[in-house]
């Protein structure tokens, strides 16, 4: 199972985002989640498509990619998704964005990532002294390639993840990818 888009089979489910009912026959978005109460180990939470675009733009994008049936308002929905992506934080690493401050240092060259410049965020282990947790680490796009080689991470897969997770305009994203 995965995230999906389907016609509501009944009018009983309500939207997890806005809490209002989803009409029977209306296209709805199923957000997959792990359920210990279900045999298969996973189940779906339902959302109106427009609500999912705002609240879960990444998951909805994934479902749209696999949806083969009719979708009358696809262009409108994609517009809503683009807006949703701007308003939500990236959900997964790695992603590229613009540095909101100049405080972070590049993991590779250890010099600061300038405020407002394009950067790549990756997940890394952070040793707090008391315990090891996971947090974000940042890279200059031009340093990322060498860091990937150092970590033995394959470039194409990393770039595909960046493409999927980032919130940048496509021109900016291409710039980041070009520098890796
Ligand atoms: Zn809703
Ligand atoms: Zn650097």
How would you portray this structure in words?
The chain is of the alpha+beta class. It has two domains: 84 residues, Zinc finger, PARP-type (first zn-finger domain of poly(adp-ribose) polymerase-1), CATH 3.30.1740; 85 residues, Zinc finger, PARP-type (first zn-finger domain of poly(adp-ribose) polymerase-1, 2-Layer Sandwich). The strands form two sheets. Strands 1-2-3 form a three-stranded antiparallel β-sheet. A three-stranded antiparallel β-sheet has the order 4-5-6. Helix 1 packs across helix 2, helix 1 runs parallel beside helix 3 and helix 4 crosses helix 6. The longest helix is centred in the middle third of the chain and has 14 residues. The chain starts with a strand and ends with a helix. The mean pLDDT is 90. One zinc ion binds next to strand 3.
């Amino acid at each position: 199972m995965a995230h999906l888009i389907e016609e509501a089979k009944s009018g009983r489910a309500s939207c997890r985002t806005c809490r209002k009912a989803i009409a029977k026959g209306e296209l709805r978005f199923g957000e997959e989640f792990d359920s210990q109460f279900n045999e298969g180990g996973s189940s779906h939470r339902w959302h109106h498509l427009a609500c999912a675009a705002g609240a879960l733009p990444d998951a909805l994008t994934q479902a749209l990619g696999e949806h083969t049936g009719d979708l009358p308002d696809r262009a409108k929905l994609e517009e809503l998704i683009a807006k949703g992506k701007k308003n939500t934080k990236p959900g997964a690493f790695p992603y590229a964005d613009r540095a909101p401050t100049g405080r972070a240092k590049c993991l590779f060259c250890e010099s600061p990532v300038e405020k407002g410049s394009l950067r790549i965020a990756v997940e890394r282990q952070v040793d707090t002294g008391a315990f090891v947790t996971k947090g974000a680490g940042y890279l200059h796009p031009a340093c990322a390639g060498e860091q990937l080689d150092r970590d033995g991470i394959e470039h194409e897969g990393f770039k595909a993840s960046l493409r999927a997770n980032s919130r940048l305009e496509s021109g900016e994203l291409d710039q980041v990818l070009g520098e890796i």
